[in-house]
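WARN no homologs supplied; continuing
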Amino acid sequence: MIAVTEYKGQAIGVFGLGKAGEATVAGLVAGGAEVYAWDDKTADAPARTDGVNLVPFQEWPWEKLSALVLSPGVPLTHPQPHAVVKIAMKQGCPVLGDVELLCRAQTKARYVAITGTNGKSTTTTLIGHILKEAGVPVQVGGNLGTAALSLEPLGEDGVYVIETSSYQLDLLHTARFHVAVWLNITPDHIDRHGDIGGYVAAKKNIFCGQQATDTAVVAVDDEHSNHTADQLHAAGRKVVYVSSQRKTGGVYVLDGILHDFLSQQRFDLRGISTLTGRHNWQNAAAAYGACRMLGIAPETIYKAMQSFAGLRHRLQLVATLRGVRFINDSKATNADATQHALAPYEHIYWIAGGKAKEGGIESLQGLFSKITHAFLIGEAKNSFAHTLEGLVPYTHSGTLEAAVAQAAQLAFAEGREGAVVLLSPACASFDQFKSFEHRGDVFCELVEKLAQGETDAA
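OK structure emitted
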């Protein structure tokens, strides 16, 4: 845990008591602050025993609060500011987030921040793995799962590797990232940013605290990202261009071969099962570029990549039964992420659906030929069926349990070489599950039961 001493003896408000909020409260209390805390879901919560004032935010002593620490899930601007934000703005109280507090509390360490619509978690985890293998003291967290202030303190030799969402980036003030990694942009979270312009603007906050000696590592495989890299370069910033589609003057991967233009070296990624597909090549190029900027030798980076175990819930191979691979890609909560999951495979028995996002699966039509049969679940099953009608055979499964059983039965019966049962929902999980992790865990449990049944029948 990180103790935040900046507000010692001062009053500070914390709104939102999920993982990030609770870690923030603990860090502020450890640093000697007087903490007022509340959450929209805590009306009936018991009194706290940690000295925190659990009081509705309307009753906080706003006139003496030094800051409001807002959990990233709470609306800052759109569709409209939360009531607690409106009060803070009226009172002139600064609104910030836990990543900002981490950077202020641990000033001797170096920071790598990663953002983008897709690939953040894989790239964050990969960078952390490379640094660990290189012997660098490292802590990995942020939007990835471990709250920023739940990480351990690091000295000047240490590196914090922080996955940052647009929500978290909206709450930065002075945070400095020695290496800022930008992966890609496709429309997402428009309800929280107003439009694509607001979304991109929030993402660009990742570069705002950088100094002349710091580096922006930018993947330039989409229009918004390429424009961002060019803007930074024109402003005299240090930029490493990375790509999985074309040659750059930085780091690029073509046909599975990573090219380091900085050292004129090449590395073959084709044998690394956890880094297959163009989307993972982009992640690998960005991670490689970031670690090079931290002084890690090319050969050390490549060796670490070869032992990368991959990310749970992102193209995770759960089991191979009767020649059929069962892949957990529950983290694919939008069509763009699912596009990356469909691309590497043939003969796909696709489990999709949940709480639909804007645009549905229309953008995936170019990959429908890879799908042998779709099994549709959750709220989106009817709209997805409408899109698939006449193009892909489908079954209204309804639940994940039914979908796994039906997909396995058909895949086993048809016996297609290279067949894959793929959970890649292209939807949020909140209609039937607590989170995408919960959804993925249930999928893994169902596949494990299938495997046990195969063993028992043998």
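The chain has a mean pLDDT of 94.
OK
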